[in-house]
Amino acid sequence: MAETPDVPTETAALPNGGAMPLLGFGTWQLRGDDAVRATGAALEAGYRHLDTATMYRNEAEVGRALAESGVAREEVFVTTKCPPDRADRALDTLRASLEQLRTDHVDLWLVHWPVGGAGRDVELWQRFVEAQQEGLAREVGVSNYDPALIDEVTDATGVRPAVNQVEWSPLLFDAGTVAAHRERDVVLEGYSTLKGGTLEHPTVVGIAERLGRTPAQVLVRWHVQHGIVVIPKSANPDRIRANADVGGFELSADDVAALDALGG
């Protein structure tokens, strides 16, 4: 691995003219000093996209790491999420997130998962639109939504989610899902990419061994080449750096097709 990670620079275009780095650092399950150290290590390695959530209970630690990193706030794309059980106090939840994160806005605020119930997802999405109008969130999006629900909230408000974050890996690849998001001009973002047996899958391991890369690097690179956002998480500084070191190689078309086929 290179001493300085070769971090991919590709981004996804967002509705308001912003750019979302395809590589982000996930912070789920990182708490306390571990969260501060890991987030700091990610920023030092060159990540410029941090993903957290109210329910992760680590926004203060992520905010501290960013503040202490020496990296300018405007250089880092910050995402947080609102749990649907706070739908009736969504804007207060976001303001609390901003205080914890030590910033006056997030670059992306996501509905963490659907609320359910007649009209309730639309009601919450209206609060998200208000947050964007107030400048508290530059972009707003959703997580764990299907295309029909994306259409429902878009049709009701005239504002489409900029991003949909879903569980994603070669084992879950579905060309129809990719196409549905592209047709709607919604950025697809994957989470839990390194879970579910992906790191041990013989196809992934075989490609990694042939290229002299780690299975995690193959999985991150696969996302980047598809134009899908990926947010690998680790508490280990060496793995954090390795997971970002994917800018210096490409998967062949055959390798991408072999990985895509795992979702079949």
UniProtKB/TrEMBL annotation:
* One Pfam assignment: Aldo_ket_red
UniProt keywords (A-Z) are: NADP, Oxidoreductase
Q: Where is the NADP-dependent oxidoreductase domain?
A: 23-262
State the superkingdom: Bacteria
The entry sums up its family as follows: Belongs to the aldo/keto reductase family.
Q: What is this protein called?
A: Aldo/keto reductase
* Source organism of the structure: Nocardioides marinquilinus
